[in-house]
Amino acid sequence: MVLDALNWKILKCLQQNARLSNAEIGRQVGISSPAVSERIKKMEDAGIILGYKTVVSPLDMGYQLKAIITLRAFIGKLKPFLEKVKTYDEVLNCYRITGNENIVMEVVLKNQKHLEAFIDQLIIYGETKTQIVLSHVTRFKEIKPLK
């Protein structure tokens, strides 16, 4: 599916606030609510729009730490880890990457003791490095058209 300027305007509205009504999006981009609905449906069907989520504050949910953990898997441990990581509630995002490490995870933890216990679960799969997140500099940036 090729995205025209109108589709990009609709995507911009949704990326800024996915709870906007089709009528409000239509007012902002200059088309009717049914036309907005049809375009959104086509973008969903094409896999451009992958879903809608509620962003929750880990701190307000009781998690005191957010960390980035990299893992350099031991020989023969990467595939088992790729299955196991899906079961960890602490892991918000997990990426398989190139370079010295194989994995980067964004995790939320209750406290330092929880971090220690979590790392203890990981070290059977490989060497870990942990960085504590202090704050977000950018977050959920809007995807814009390629130039």
Automatic annotation (TrEMBL):
<keyword id="KW-0238">DNA-binding</keyword>
<dbReference type="GO" id="GO:0006355">
    <property type="term" value="P:regulation of DNA-templated transcription"/>
</dbReference>
<protein>
    <submittedName>
        <fullName>Lrp/AsnC family transcriptional regulator</fullName>
    </submittedName>
</protein>
<dbReference type="GO" id="GO:0005829">
    <property type="term" value="C:cytosol"/>
</dbReference>
<dbReference type="InterPro" id="IPR011008">
    <property type="entry name" value="Dimeric_a/b-barrel"/>
</dbReference>
<dbReference type="InterPro" id="IPR036388">
    <property type="entry name" value="WH-like_DNA-bd_sf"/>
</dbReference>
<dbReference type="GO" id="GO:0043565">
    <property type="term" value="F:sequence-specific DNA binding"/>
</dbReference>
<dbReference type="InterPro" id="IPR011991">
    <property type="entry name" value="ArsR-like_HTH"/>
</dbReference>
<dbReference type="InterPro" id="IPR000485">
    <property type="entry name" value="AsnC-type_HTH_dom"/>
</dbReference>
<dbReference type="GO" id="GO:0043200">
    <property type="term" value="P:response to amino acid"/>
</dbReference>
<dbReference type="InterPro" id="IPR019887">
    <property type="entry name" value="Tscrpt_reg_AsnC/Lrp_C"/>
</dbReference>
<dbReference type="InterPro" id="IPR019885">
    <property type="entry name" value="Tscrpt_reg_HTH_AsnC-type_CS"/>
</dbReference>
<dbReference type="InterPro" id="IPR019888">
    <property type="entry name" value="Tscrpt_reg_AsnC-like"/>
</dbReference>
<dbReference type="Pfam" id="PF01037">
    <property type="entry name" value="AsnC_trans_reg"/>
</dbReference>
<keyword id="KW-0804">Transcription</keyword>
<feature type="domain" description="HTH asnC-type">
    <location>
        <begin position="3"/>
        <end position="64"/>
    </location>
</feature>
<keyword id="KW-0805">Transcription regulation</keyword>
<dbReference type="InterPro" id="IPR036390">
    <property type="entry name" value="WH_DNA-bd_sf"/>
</dbReference>
<dbReference type="Pfam" id="PF13412">
    <property type="entry name" value="HTH_24"/>
</dbReference>
